[in-house]
Structure formats: C-alpha cells, structure tokens
Amino acid sequence: MAKIYFRYGAMNSSKTANALMVAYNYSERGQKALLVKPDTDDRISCEPLISSRIGISLPAIFLSVFIKMTAEELNPYACVIIDEAQFLTAANVDRLVMIADDLNIPVICYGLRADFRGQLFEGSRCLLTVADTIEEMKTVCWCGKKATCNARVSASGEMVAEGPQVLLGGNERYTSLCRKHFNLRQPYPPKEGQPDE
Questions:
Q1: How far lies 73's CA from each of 8, 81, 104, 161, in Å?
Q2: Runs of H (alpha helix) within the chain
Q3: CA distance linking residue 88 with residue 120, whole number of Å
Q4: Which residue among 11, 16, 47, 147 is least crowded, i.e. fewest CB within 10 A of its CB?
Q5: Which domains are assigned to the chain?
Q6: What pTM, to 2 d.p., does this model score?
Q7: Backbone angles phi, psi at 46, to 5 degrees
Q8: pLDDT digits over 57-90, tens only?
Q9: Has 162 been annotated as catalytic?
C-alpha cells in the first residue's frame, strides 16, 4: 500500500526545494511525479509553477485541476507531490487518502503546520491525522535555536497578532522563530544597546 507523507516545517525550512528535488529524483529514474500547488499561491507566477527561493522551479498543476483528475489520468504517475499543503481542505485530504489507498500512488505533502497565531491550518490538521509518515523539516531562528513558529510582521517590523489566516507573502511578511522569541514577540535580533529579553 502506498503511503501519505506529511513533511512540515516553519517558513524557510526548504520545503519547496525538497519537493522539487524529490520530483527531479523520480524523473532521473524515468518515472513521472505530478507536482500540485494551490490555486491561491500566486506569489511567483499566476502559472502553475512551483518555485523555490533558491531559484529552481518545475511545472505543476493547480489543486482545482488535480482534484478533478480521474484514476485513469492519475495512474501514469509514480507519485503525487503537493506544495503548500496547509491550504488543503478536509475533502482534499480525503481524496489524497483514496489516491494512496485505492490507486497505490504515494502522496508527499509539504507545508506549514501552524499559522502566525500558532493555530493549525485545516490541511495540516487533517494530514497530521491521516499521514503514514510525518517528518519535520528544520530551520533556525535568528538566535540560532530551532525555529518552530511562523511570525507575521508588519512593514515596520512588528509582529502581527490579528488578521486573516491566509495572507500570502515571503520574507518581507513572515519570519521563522523559536518558541521563546515567538512568545516574546521578538521577530528580529535586538538593536545594539537593547537587551535580549
């Protein structure tokens, strides 16, 4: 039986780069991997393209197209790779379970576990429940400790605690923090002469 994998991590933990490397590894072995991205992720391009901050990208399809694919259309693929899996719905995750269990196609999902308030995303909650394998992808806080939290920051560099759960952005809008600095609401190192709490 094929497995569902959920590889989660804070912002900047190389989730997308890893997804692209996995797809490349399949292609090197003559197998096709189907890359899928959410329709709402238009930060890089309105085209179905998965791009990493390190400058690599591969063609993908939008989630809305993927969800409508038939078993016959999915069978040529050796695996399905989902980027930004936190944006999945419970019904989307049920579909992934069917693909893994009934079509015997492994599904590898990459995404955030929690939002800028520390709340689970719907897709992440469902994947944490059903995934056969759950792996944390690591990155570091500005202090050097493991970052597990995603902080949303304003243009002035202050942490934001309110607003919609989904607000697309990159390093200009989010930063990864350890739990201590997330709870202290300290998204960046203190300025010279300012104590680190």
A1: 28, 15, 14, 43
A2: 15-28, 63-67, 71-74, 90-103, 122-130, 179-183
A3: 12
A4: 47
A5: 4-136 (3.40.50.300)
A6: 0.87
A7: -80, -5
A8: 899 999 999 999 999 999 999 999 999 999 999 9
A9: no
Instruction: Tell me 152's DSSP state.
Output: E
Q: Which of 73, 84, 136, 158 is catalytic?
A: 84
Cα 14–chain centre separation: 9
- Token digits for 63? 């989630």
- Banded pLDDT at 44 (limits 50, 70, 90): low
Q: What are the tokens at 14?
A: 């190389």
Count CA within 13 A, CB hemisphere, residue 120: 12
CB contact at 8 A, 153 and 173: yes
> 54-64: per-residue pLDDT in tens?
888 899 999 99
Identity of the amino acid at 19: A
How many Å apart are CA 134 and CA 30, to the nearest integer?
27
Angle at 5 between CA 88 and CA 87, to 5 degrees: 15
Distance between CA atoms of residues 1 and 80, nearest Å: 15
Give backbone dihedrals phi and psi of 50, rounded to 5 degrees, phi first: -100, 120
CB-hemisphere CA count at 13 Å for 92? Answer: 24
Rounded-to-integer distance, Cα 43 and Cα 90, Å:
24
Report the interhelical angle of 90-103 vs 122-130 (nearest 10°): 30
